[in-house]
Specification:
By secondary structure, this protein is mainly α. It has one domain (about 5-320). It has 16 helices and four strands. A hairpin with a 4-residue loop joins strand 3 (about 310) and strand 4 (about 315-320). Helix 3 packs across helix 4 and helix 3 packs across helix 11 (about 195-220). The longest helix has 26 residues, at about 45-70. It is globular.
């Protein structure tokens, strides 16, 4: 039975991209996205515009995962063309390279550390710490983790978190956050003024609202689910954190395609160099990875994830705050 570092070593043969497949997935996804966005403009029936807009929103999730893998250097490495494309994608998705890579790399290095995991992730406090908070601190903490905040991830996580806060915190380091925000607002304004509200809504707002809201939830639920483990920094072990603190999110194959297999999150955290299109292959070949903690997109699973608020160190589990003194 593979354990610890032996399990990580077993995944290394899969941490090699197939360059032709990487380009195929990138080009085909971007082409479908462009066609669906054009469809929101040219198709004459509102129902068809709506269908294209929703399709574009789902495709943007896949585009983001491709960008995410490129930032991990798991696909299209050392390609000047890919570097240009992904820089544009990062700007377009309100996740410019400087802030996304810094925060996401921190997340991978500190995933599930109880006292240093909040950068690049949703904050976690212990039950004891929560009970010691002031009313204002409790409100702020719960507001960040509230379902409505996550649903509005377009505004809360990406516009405010990725762009505004990063630029305000370090203008020189994150000047690209300001550029992304200015371009975003400019394009939205031009669409609304010169083409009309339908173009703005179907081509711009709805796809971003769907993709970034869904992205915010996926990021939340993959590390906030029943059975998740959190550790004090001194007890933290990389491979254990990957398997015990990252979920396998069961999805329909169609949703797996739209989400770029990000549901295989425990494998991604075990070895982030594995290209997204090889993650199912890894799970199929390595039996130990099939014995994992799971969640799903079912209403029941979503509700169970949202109920979890604080880490109870006595029972070693995430709990809600109702009934706490």
């Amino acid at each position: 039975m593979l354990l610890g570092k032996d399990l990580i070593l077993a995944t290394k043969p899969f941490a090699k991209e197939i360059r032709a497949r990487s380009w195929f997935h990138t080009i085909s996804t971007l082409t479908l996205l462009i066609l669906s966005l054009v469809g929101t403009l040219l198709l004459p029936i509102l129902a068809l515009k709506l269908a294209c807009s929703v399709f574009a929103g789902l495709l943007l999730i896949r585009v983001f995962i491709i960008y995410h893998d490129h930032q991990h250097h798991s696909i299209l490495t050392n390609s000047p063309a890919a570097e240009v494309i992904m820089t544009i994608v990062g700007m377009y998705m309100l996740s410019p390279t400087s802030i996304w890579k810094r925060s996401h790399d921190h997340h991978h290095k500190h995933n599930s550390k109880l006292f240093s995991a909040s950068i690049g992730s949703y904050p976690i406090v212990t039950r004891k710490k929560y009970q010691e908070m002031t009313g204002t601190q409790k409100f702020t903490y719960l507001a960040i983790r509230h379902p409505l905040t996550i649903l509005l991830g377009y505004f809360s996580m990406f516009i405010l978190g990725m762009c505004v806060r990063s630029f305000v915190s370090s203008p020189r380091k994150h000047y690209d956050s300001l550029i992304a925000l200015i371009l975003h607002v400019t394009v939205a304004s031009l669409l609304f003024i010169f083409i009309g509200w339908q173009a703005w809504f179907f081509m711009f707002f709805l796809p971003f609202f769907i993709s970034l809201g869904m992205g915010a939830y996926l990021f939340y639920a993959q590390h906030n689910f029943p059975g998740v483990e959190f550790y004090e920094n001194k007890n933290w072990v990389y491979e254990k954190a990957a398997l015990e603190s990252s979920s396998y999110m069961k999805m329909h194959p169609i949703m797996e395609w739209f989400t770029g297999n990000i549901g295989y999150h425990h494998i991604h955290h075990l070895n982030s160099k594995i290209p997204f299109y090889r993650l199912p292959e890894v799970m199929k070949k390595i039996a130990e990875l099939r014995n994992c903690k799971t969640t799903s997109l079912s209403p029941k699973a979503v509700s169970e994830c949202f109920k979890l608020k604080v880490w109870d160190q006595e029972s070693n589990q995430m709990i809600g705050v109702r009934g706490l003194p």
